[in-house]
Amino acid sequence: MALCARCLYGSSVYSLLSVCLNLGMSKIDLSLLFLTLWLPATGADKDKPLPKDFKALKALAEKGDAEAQVQLANIYVWGKGVKVDKIEAYKWASRSAKQGNPIAKYHVASAHFAGVGIPQDTEKAEVLYKQAAPGLRALAKQGNAYAQYCLGEMYASGRGVNRNEKEGFQWMLKAAKQNLPEAQMGIGVMYMDGGGGVKKDEKEGLMWLRKAANQNLAEAKAAIGLLQKEGKLGLKKNAKKGLQLLKESVEQGSVLGMFALGGVYLTEELSLAAGVEKDTDKGLALMRASAKQGLALARFTLGSLLLTGQRGVEKDIETGISLIRSSAAQRNPKAQWLLAQLYLVGRFGIDKDVDKGLKLLQQAAENGDPKAQWRLANIYFAGQFGVEKDILKSYAWAHIAATHGDEQSKQGKEILKKRLTPEQLAKAEAMVKEMTEKNPRLLK
Question: Any idea of the CA torsion for 268, 273, 277, 279, to the nearest 10 degrees?
Answer without folding.
Answer: -50
